[in-house]
Amino acid sequence: MDDQLIEKIKSGNDHAFRILVEKYRNLVFHTAYGVLRNEKDAEDAAQEVFLKIYTSLPQYEKQGFTTWVTRIAVNHAIDIKRKKTRRHEEMNVEYEEKSHAPPGESVELLVIQRERKRLIRKRLNELPDNYRDVVEGFYIKEQTYEELAEKLDVKLKTVEVRLYRARQWMKKHWKEDDFS
Description:
Organism: Siminovitchia thermophila
Helix content: over 70%
Protein name: RNA polymerase sigma factor (Sigma-70 family)
Number of strands: 0
Largest sheet: none
Keywords: Sigma factor, Transcription, Transcription regulation
Family: Belongs to the sigma-70 factor family. ECF subfamily.
Strand content: under 5%
InterPro entries: RNA_pol_sigma-70-like, RNA_pol_sigma-70_dom, RNA_pol_sigma70_r2, RNA_pol_sigma70_r4_t2, RNA_pol_sigma_r2, RNA_pol_sigma_r3/r4-like, WH-like_DNA-bd_sf
Number of helices: 8
Number of domains: 2
């Protein structure tokens, strides 16, 4: 039945899409809610998921529609959760920066410093995962090699090698002008 419905939707039948939404709305909502743990966010996510489903239907290859829908819902909910976490972290950083500003600092200097920190955080996300952990730990959180090795559950030499390779990666992919 889903295959017939999908074919009708692909040929422009809006009523068929409404039927599909009705059939899968609880599944999509509960899937999103399972990740987000917030009813309002799950409702918003469900609406966005159905838009994604509608626009992605041409790529659907009859590999199990329920599984396909669930995967889209889970991935979208995870994306939302990551964005919320990032926004929350950025707000905390801005709050900390404002509340710990040295007396007499100019507003312009604070804005420049905040922008530079934002850029560095953004650029850190470009690093391969195994490098990002050590760079962030060593340079930003100021952890020792020993602390990083323990936290990452690797040997001390592995931390040294990853930091070395991360520096090489940054030299190759980033220009110094990017940070000035």
